[in-house]
Amino acid sequence: MNLKKTILLPKYQKVFEHLGENIKLARKRRKLTTEQVSERAGINRTTLYRIEKGDPAVAIGSYFNVFRVLNLEDDFKKLAVDDEFGRKLQDLDLL
């Protein structure tokens, strides 16, 4: 399999790292092991480790499955829910 490395600017990589840390903390608060979460999410432990480190190359579906296992899918649904900038652009077209 030919994997292409995802390249992000450092400030955006920090966003992923923060997300990964939040996921890790949520798992620990629930007293779940990496084995339990990875099994329930249908991913291997290495993938969960990469998610908790904030790896942007992990498939978004894997992130969602971890959110689901942690009962955080409503948080996931909030991503890009209010496209304020896009709405302003749309409104400009209406003039």
From TrEMBL:
This is Helix-turn-helix transcriptional regulator. Pfam families: HTH_19. SUPFAM superfamilies: lambda repressor-like DNA-binding domains. Transmembrane segments: none annotated. Residues 23-54 form the HTH cro/C1-type domain. It comes from the Bacteria. One of its GO terms (molecular function) is DNA binding.
